[in-house]
Amino acid sequence: MKKLATSSRVSTGRNSGFTLIEVMVASVILFSVIATVSMIYSGAFISSEKANNHINLSAVLPSVLATIRQDIRSQGNVNISQLKQQSSTWQVNYHWQADLIEQKSAPEKFDVDSGKLVTPPAKYKLWQVVLILERNGVTKQYQFNELSWTDE
């Protein structure tokens, strides 16, 4: 009789699981993708917050400028050379300072009765204003000129 040749390995079929190396490589790839997406999302969120703060600062600017204009025109009639104030509106803190640049009168005019040039009183003041707006760590600075006058 012939003996059947048997091998020492028994063929039970191929294992269908993953090796430890394959699992580790897959998890490194997965965690790298998660970390990248997380950093992108975080950067987009921070950029969105900064843009929102800049928009809020720009939105409040017309109201703040109107308030400053009114304050300068009401307080600018007295004999002072500097005005300043700080306040907040719509969660925006602001402070401004106005320095008197120049005080002038209207141009000379000819007085028919006296026959001479008459210089009107110096009732116009030109102010240089520095405005600083702050909200949630975002700061914007503006500089502009404003005119005030007396009603004499």
Question: For the CA atoms, what is the radius of gyration?
Answer: 38 Å
What is the spatial order of strands in the main beta sheet? 1-2-5-6
Order of helices and strands: HEEEEEE
What is the number of domains? 1
- What's the helical proportion of residues? 25-40%
Major sheet summary line: 4 strands, antiparallel
Which residues form runs of ≥5 with pLDDT under 50? none
Taken from the alpha-carbon principal axes, the silhouette is rod-shaped
Number of strands: 6
- What's the total helix number? 1
Distance between the termini: 137 Å
Structural class, judged by helices and strands?
alpha+beta
Q: What proportion of the residues form beta strands (DSSP E)?
A: 25-35%
Mean residue pLDDT: 85
Structure write-up:
There is one protein chain. With 152 residues, the chain is α+β, with helices and mostly antiparallel strands. It has one domain (20-149). Helices cover 37% and strands 34% of the residues. It has one helix spanning 20-75; strands at 82-89, 92-104, 109-111, 116-118, 124-135, 138-149. The strands form two sheets. It has a four-stranded antiparallel β-sheet with strand order 1-2-5-6, covered by helices on one side. Strands 3-4 form a two-stranded antiparallel sheet. Strand 1 and strand 2 (92-104) form a beta hairpin. The chain is rod-shaped, with a radius of gyration of 38 Å. The termini are far apart.
